[in-house]
Amino acid sequence: MSAENGDAASNDDIKTMTFEQALEALEAIVNDLERGDVPLEQSIRIYERGEALKAHCDRLLKAAEDKVEKIRLSRDGAPVGTEPLDPK
């Protein structure tokens, strides 16, 4: 089994993970669960860790999305500033 045993204490490390680290850990959990050879109690624990990893990835993606900006161009095509990519 490649995913860590997921309990509340071991989930504390998630908040310090990069997006790539969290995604890799989530993929390992999905692979373990898809294999179907993980005992029920352990499946529940790693599923809960997977949910925490997914939420962390969602937060990191939202933060990145908020930083992405579109370059505004003047009529002659010169850059004149930036604006949110998807203004709300």
TrEMBL record:
What is one GO cellular-component annotation here?
A: cytosol
Does this entry carry the keyword Nuclease? Answer: yes
> Which Gene3D superfamilies does the entry link to?
Exonuclease VII, small subunit (1.10.287.1040)
Q: Which reaction does it catalyse?
A: Exonucleolytic cleavage in either 5'- to 3'- or 3'- to 5'-direction to yield nucleoside 5'-phosphates
Q: SUPFAM superfamilies, per this entry?
A: XseB-like
Q: Which UniProt keywords apply?
A: Cytoplasm, Exonuclease, Hydrolase, Nuclease
A single Pfam family it belongs to is: Exonuc_VII_S
* Enzyme Commission no: 3.1.11.6
Q: Which GO terms describe its molecular function?
A: exodeoxyribonuclease VII activity
The family database entries (InterPro entries) matched by this protein are listed as:
Exonuc_VII_S, Exonuc_VII_ssu_sf
Q: Where in the cell is it found?
A: Cytoplasm
The record's note on quaternary structure and interaction partners says: Heterooligomer composed of large and small subunits.
Functionally, this protein is described as follows: Bidirectionally degrades single-stranded DNA into large acid-insoluble oligonucleotides, which are then degraded further into small acid-soluble oligonucleotides.
Q: Can you name this protein?
A: Exodeoxyribonuclease 7 small subunit
